[in-house]
Every structure is written in C-alpha cells, then in structure tokens.
C-alpha cells in the first residue's frame, strides 16, 4: 500500500466516522427535536401544539431581514385561519443542515383546499429556524 493510498483511506474513514457522528448528534439535537415537533403540529393542523413550539417573543422574517411580525399572538393569527380553512397540510424537510441551535430546512409544503385527498397547491421554501431556551425564537423564510 502506497502512502497516497493510506492517506486516501484515512480521509475516507474520517469522513465516514464524521458523517455517522453528525447524524447521531443531529438526531439528539434539541433544536432538531423542537423543529420536528413544530412540523408535526403543522401537519396535524393543531394550532395549540404548533404555537407551543415557539418562544413568546418569536420573530418571523422574510429573507434576508424583512421582519414580518413578532410574538406568539401574531403567529397564531397568521396560522389559525389557514389551519381551519385548509382540508390538509403536509410539510416535510427535503434537505436539512443543522449547526448547534440553527436548523435550515429545504421544505416542501403541500395543501388541499377543497378535498382532503387532493393536493392542489404546493410550495418550496427555505426555512431557517433559530432555537433559544428549547423553543423556536426566529424563523427566516426564503420563498
């Protein structure tokens, strides 16, 4: 085995161990847990469980820094009508990057407006969630 092969093998082993360690760390990351809980509440159209995942002083932005609103009451006002009106909501993370208290999701959101079995609207967004004290403190959406 040449030195070059040994270096390549070492690099591969380092990458594999980092990848598995990162996946394991991501699975237990509190930021990931609260974002996943928020997505589940969204999909269940459970406004109370959804709002419970957010910090009292949550800030919602349109990318890059356009503040749309703050606070849980405004968040509830913005989502409650949609939760009541739509026949189904289904959001999922297509790709995810996690770094400490920040979760960046490429999300696909699908909606049913007239029949709960027919998805008639879908959008893709980038959502950047910042978590503080175990709750979502800031969200920035790129649409």
Could you give a quick summary of the protein structure above?
Helix content is 42%, strand content 40%. It is built from four helices and six strands. The chain has helices spanning 3-28, 30-43, 47-52, 72-85, and strands spanning 54-62, 66-70, 88-99, 102-112, 121-132, 135-142.
Tell me the number of structural domains: 1
Largest sheet: 6 strands, mixed
Q: Any idea of the CATH topology?
A: Nuclear Transport Factor 2, Chain: A
What's the CATH class label? Answer: Alpha Beta
Could you walk me through the main structural features you see in this protein, from its secondary elements to its overall organization?
This protein is α+β, with helices and mostly antiparallel strands and 143 residues long. It has a single domain (30-142), classed as Nuclear Transport Factor 2, Chain: A (Roll). The chain has four helices and six strands. The chain has helices spanning 3-28, 30-43, 47-52, 72-85, and strands at 54-62, 66-70, 88-99, 102-112, 121-132, 135-142. It has a six-stranded mixed β-sheet with strand order 2-1-6-5-4-3. A hairpin with a 2-residue loop joins β3 (88-99) and β4. The longest helix is centred in the N-terminal third of the chain and has 26 residues, at 3-28. The protein is globular. It starts with a helix and ends with a strand. The model is unreliable at 1-21 (pLDDT under 50).
């Amino acid at each position: 085995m040449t030195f070059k092969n040994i270096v390549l093998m070492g690099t591969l082993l380092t990458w594999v161990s980092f990848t598995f360690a990162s996946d394991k760390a991501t699975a237990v990351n509190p930021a990931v847990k609260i974002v996943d809980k928020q997505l589940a509440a969204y999909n269940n159209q459970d406004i109370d469980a959804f709002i419970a995942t957010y910090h009292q002083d949550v800030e919602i932005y349109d990318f890059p820094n356009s503040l749309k609103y703050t606070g849980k009451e405004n968040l509830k006002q913005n989502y409650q009508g949609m939760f009541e009106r739509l026949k189904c909501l289904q959001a999922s993370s297509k790709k995810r990057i996690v770094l400490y208290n920040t979760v960046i999701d490429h999300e696909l959101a699908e909606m049913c407006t007239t029949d709960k079995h027919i998805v008639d609207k879908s959008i893709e967004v980038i959502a950047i969630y910042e978590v503080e004290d175990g709750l979502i403190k800031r969200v920035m959406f790129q649409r």
